[in-house]
Design goal:
Number of helices of chain B: 8
Strand content of chain A: under 5%
Radius of gyration of chain A: 19 Å
Structural class of chain B: mainly alpha
Structural class of chain A: mainly alpha
Distance between the termini of chain B: 57 Å
Shape of chain B: elongated
Mean pLDDT of chain A: 84
Oligomer: heterodimer
Low-confidence stretches of chain A: 90-98
Strand content of chain B: under 5%
Number of strands of chain B: 0
Number of domains of chain A: 2
Distance between the termini of chain A: 54 Å
Shape of chain A: globular
Number of helices of chain A: 8
Order of helices and strands of chain A: HHHHHHHH
Largest interface: A-B, 57 and 56 residues
Low-confidence stretches of chain B: 1-5
Largest sheet of chain A: none
Radius of gyration of chain B: 21 Å
């Protein structure tokens, strides 16, 4: 292992946290909750990760997750489109193949929904100026976590994670379902 | 808790995640947990899946005739003996190695794994030293045996 690395990619701790804790939820979301497909996707992504070895390419540890997610999406969309796996996934991760978010109409609708949700969520944190600021940057300005950290003059993106944890504690899926006007199906039994 | 097949349609779950959490590449650990709970999964229960995943990576590499990275053994070792390593006992570590030996991997990989894990371990008791000597002898015998086959 490179002495300069703050984490050991060949340790069980890293493996479990990174692939199960961080990438598995992304795979579940991409595979619409299908566990078998999601674990297949995590497997293919892990294979790419250990073949490509981002730590040997000068990528900082903080960049591993976003970069690997882009690769995971590319693997996923290639599979959906029945395209053969590409050998050079690392060279073309900017483009998300076939993403339905890519269309202009989709982007506008997405932003409108985000802003609508953001304004409703602010009401949940009426007496919390810091959280309102977070929601504003997140849902109205569409900033990334590191951009929010800069805008809020926080020391690093970890503090934004803490804000997000406070946020998701209050804005639970049940709350978000109501605010978005989604209608849960009734149980059949 | 909203569950995939009990309350929301898959499309609604996708919309919920997308609108609430934004692009996946910017998700935090809090977002990861949110997604797993939304799909009805326990975020703390991932060790077995991690073991299955590393074993699958190793199996696939062997099936394709590719070299299995020694680091995979390291990961598997950590995952299968997490509790034992927290106890930091050589005897319990040995039990882990014996369990690992049940998996049909080339002996030289097991030997590399032992070297990796016992490097920099200080203050070994006499019992620990003896266990290590026995273990080294066993592994060397196995390597010799496999070379003669």
């Amino acid at each position: 292992m490179d002495e300069a690395l703050p984490v050991d990619p060949w340790s069980g701790k890293f493996f479990e946290e990174f692939f199960m804790g961080r990438l598995r939820p992304v795979a579940f979301r991409l595979c619409c909750g299908n566990e078998t497909n999601a674990l297949d996707l995590v497997h293919d992504t892990a294979k790419w990760f250990y073949d490509w070895k981002p730590w040997e390419k000068g990528l900082s540890c903080e960049a591993w997750f976003p970069y690997t997610v882009l690769v995971m999406k590319r693997i996923h969309y290639r599979r959906i489109k029945n395209e053969p796996p590409a050998n050079q996934l690392d060279e073309a991760t900017e483009e998300i193949v076939g993403s339905d978010r890519a269309s202009a109409a989709g982007k506008i609708r997405y932003m409108a929904e985000r802003q609508s949700l953001g304004s409703k969520l602010m009401a949940l944190f009426e007496d919390d100026e810091q959280m309102q600021e977070f929601i504003y940057y997140r849902y109205f300005c569409n900033m990334t976590r590191s951009e929010i950290a800069t805008a809020m003059r926080l020391e690093d993106a970890r503090e934004v994670t803490d804000l997000e944890a406070r946020f998701t504690y209050r804005a639970t899926p049940e709350v978000a379902i109501k605010l978005l006007g989604l209608v849960p199906r009734r149980d059949s039994v | 808790m909203a569950k995939n097949d009990e309350s929301l349609s898959p499309a609604d779950i996708e919309k919920l995640i997308s609108v609430v959490l934004g692009p996946e590449e910017d998700w935090s650990e809090a977002a990861d947990e949110y997604v797993l709970r939304l799909y009805g999964l326990d975020p703390s229960n991932s060790s077995k899946d991690a073991c299955d995943l590393i074993l699958r990576l190793m199996d696939n590499a062997r099936e394709k005739g590719e070299e299995v990275p020694a680091g995979f053994m390291n990961i598997l070792w950590d995952l299968t003996s997490k509790d034992d390593w927290e106890a930091d006992s050589i005897a319990s570590a040995r039990r882990g190695i014996e369990e690992m030996q049940q998996i049909p991997f080339p002996p030289h990989l097991a030997a590399a794994m032992v070297t990796q894990h016992f490097r920099d371990k200080g203050d070994l008791s006499e019992d620990d030293e003896q266990i290590l000597r026995d273990l080294a002898a066993e592994l060397l015998n196995e390597v010799e045996g496999s070379n003669n086959e």
